[in-house]
């Protein structure tokens, strides 16, 4: 078959990009996914979305993402279970308080309604949490949580509505490059002739890069999550105690979802661990003592797609014309997917180069360049 | 048949599962991530047999060939306080 563009990776990033390409009028776009939808990082993530970031770029990207998430259900006809209960960051030392104050100021300058919260305000918002060591918090009511399974299916539905194609259970076996240009993608089910390939394979991006002779610096880091039995809604905001890297949220289905990374560095597998379940249970009970009696349903592992300077890798690469990168989202690709998909689609369709693409090209690792983001959680 | 429930925890009916299988979600892992079947209190312990049978009926797969669902710990519902206490006893950080 022939395609205008082939997107490798049916995670939330690749799906969002394909949806945006369709919205901008591109047809004959093919997404290839090696397994089933939600089998990788998308289906393993917490679904949290927030405007509370420490850099102007990420604040703007997230404002746009949240606005697109809000209309996703009506545009695609799939309920994505969006609940805007806010994010509450909790600081337990002076440096974290200062970090929050700086970020809140920057977020306010970008029109985001984040504000610092006193202990009294924190108690009124979340009566069940233990604030013994907490000094202050920051809260943004626009932040929230969605159901990742449904978001992936919403994008997939949108892609099909545009007449574009999604092929699951179809690993890529080779990318053919001829005189420096993309020519063909070989997959298990079909050979696709194309001049544009997008690498949206997340943690698996380096393997895809290697097929086209492009060396990528990403590596997978294991992060783990659990979910409890469903409870009556009681926890409005998503909670992030900054000292522990813990994230706790109550989903629209009533479950308490929590995640934490207990093994830093290159992961060997994403099997769930005993070390995780004990560490996170202790952190959760410390944060919300009443959770002690709440039962765990299941735990699982997943990967963060890590880059050396904590920023993603976007846009074209030197040496292979038509090979576009879109990965390295440091465990935050889910929340950024709607805006990143739009930015990348505008680049591909209208050749519009958003500053984020200019900043995040692979070549920066040779030329030097980007400031690390502070508010990476987990 | 429309009101025959297969996944009691997540309120998923037989007809919904048949429609999902016909739409291409013809294995347990894919079904789980489409309908959230098996993600409730029983963790698929009650519904897995019925789902396998429906997949076999709707496709040309043998029940034995329809891949089983990856099982995730804990084996049965366990309070957070139990795990939190374990760590303290072992003195781990």
Describe the structure.
The complex is a heterodimer of chains A (378) and B (93). With 378 residues, chain A is α/β, with parallel strands linked by helices. In chain A, 32% of the residues lie in helices and 26% in strands. The model of chain A has no long low-confidence stretch (mean pLDDT 96). In chain A, strand 15 and strand 16 form a beta hairpin. Chain A contains 11 helices and 19 strands. Chain A folds into 2 domains: 171 residues, FAD/NAD(P)-binding domain; 148 residues, D-Amino Acid Oxidase, subunit A, domain 2 (D-Amino Acid Oxidase, Chain A, domain 2, 2-Layer Sandwich), CATH 3.30.9. Chain A is globular, with a radius of gyration of 20 Å. In chain A, the strands form 5 sheets. In chain A, strands 8-2-1-12-19-18 form a 6-stranded mixed sheet, sandwiched between helices. In chain A, strands 5-6-4-14 form a 4-stranded mixed sheet. Chain B has a two-stranded antiparallel ribbon. Chain B has 93 residues and is mainly α. Chain B has one domain: Arc Repressor Mutant, subunit A. Chain B starts with a strand and ends with a helix. In chain B, helix 1 packs across helix 3. Helix content of chain B is 42%, strand content 8%. Chain B contains 4 helices and 3 strands, in the order ββαααβα. At the A-B interface, helix 6, strand 13, helix 8 and strand 17 of A face helix 2, strand 3 and helix 4 of B.
Q: Topology of this protein?
A:
The complex is a heterodimer of chains A (378) and B (93).
Chain A: E1 5-8, H1 12-23, E2 29-32, H2 41-44, E3 48-49, H3 56-76, E4 87-91, H4 94-109, E5 115-117, H5 119-125, E6 136-140, E7 144-145, H6 148-161, E8 165-167, E9 172-178, E10 181-187, E11 191-193, E12 197-199, H7 205-211, E13 219-230, E14 238-241, E15 247-250, E16 255-260, H8 274-287, E17 295-306, E18 313-317, E19 320-327, H9 333-350, H10 355-359, H11 364-367
Parallel strand pairs in A: 1-2, 1-12, 2-8, 4-14, 12-19
Antiparallel strand pairs in A: 3-7, 4-6, 5-6, 9-10, 10-11, 13-16, 13-17, 15-16, 18-19
Helix pairs in contact in A: 1-6, 1-9, 3-6, 3-9
Chain B: E1 5-7, E2 12-13, H1 14-22, H2 28-35, H3 48-58, E3 78-79, H4 80-90
Antiparallel strand pairs in B: 1-2
Helix pairs in contact in B: 1-3
């Amino acid at each position: 078959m022939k395609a205008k563009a082939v997107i490798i990776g049916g995670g939330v990033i690749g799906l969002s990009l394909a949806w945006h390409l369709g919205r901008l009028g591109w047809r004959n776009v093919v997404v290839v996914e090696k397994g089933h939808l939600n089998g990788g990082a998308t289906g393993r993530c917490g679904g949290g979305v927030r405007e509370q970031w420490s850099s102007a770029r990420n604040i703007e990207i997230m404002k746009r993402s949240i606005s697109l998430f809000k209309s996703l259900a009506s545009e695609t006809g799939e309920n994505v279970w969006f609940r805007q209960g806010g994010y509450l960051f909790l600081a337990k030392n002076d440096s974290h308080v200062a970090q929050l104050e700086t970020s809140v100021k920057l977020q306010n300058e970008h029109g985001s309604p984040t504000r610092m919260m006193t202990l009294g305000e924190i108690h009124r918002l979340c009566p069940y949490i233990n604030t013994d060591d907490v000094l202050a918090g920051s809260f943004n009511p626009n932040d929230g949580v969605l159901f990742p399974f449904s978001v992936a299916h919403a994008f997939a539905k949108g892609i099909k509505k545009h007449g574009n194609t999604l092929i699951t259970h179809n690993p890529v076996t080779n990318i053919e490059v001829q005189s420096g240009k993309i020519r063909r993608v070989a997959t298990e089910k079909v050979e696709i002739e194309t001049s544009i390939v997008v690498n949206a394979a997340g943690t698996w991006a380096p393997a895809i890069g290697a097929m086209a002779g492009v060396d990528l610096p990403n590596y997978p880091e294991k992060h783990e999550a659990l979910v409890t039995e469903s409870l009556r809604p009681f926890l409005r905001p998503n909670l992030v105690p900054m000292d522990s890297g813990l994230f706790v949220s109550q989903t629209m289905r009533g479950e308490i979802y929590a995640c934490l990374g207990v093994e830093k560095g290159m992961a060997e597998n994403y099997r769930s661990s005993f070390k995780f379940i004990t560490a996170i249970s202790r952190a959760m009970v410390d944060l919300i003592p009443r959770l002690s009696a709440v039962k765990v349903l299941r735990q699982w592992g997943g990967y963060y797609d890590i880059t050396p300077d904590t920023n993603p890798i976007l846009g074209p690469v030197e040496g292979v014309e038509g090979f576009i990168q879109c990965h390295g989202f440091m465990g935050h690709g889910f929340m950024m997917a709607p805006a990143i998909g739009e930015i990348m689609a505008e680049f591909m369709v209208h050749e519009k180069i958003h500053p984020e693409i200019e900043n995040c090209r692979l070549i920066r690792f040779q030329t030097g360049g980007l400031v690390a983001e502070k508010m990476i959680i987990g | 048949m429309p009101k025959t429930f297969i996944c009691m925890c997540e309120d998923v009916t037989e007809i919904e599962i048949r429609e999902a299988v016909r739409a291409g979600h013809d294995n347990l892992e894919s079904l789980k991530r489409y309908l959230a079947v098996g993600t409730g209190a029983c963790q698929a312990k009650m519904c897995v047999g019925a789902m396998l049978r429906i997949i076999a009926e709707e496709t040309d797969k043998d029940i034995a060939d329809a891949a089983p669902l990856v099982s995730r710990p804990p084996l049965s519902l366990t309070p957070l306080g139990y795990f939190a206490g374990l760590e303290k006893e072992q003195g781990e950080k």
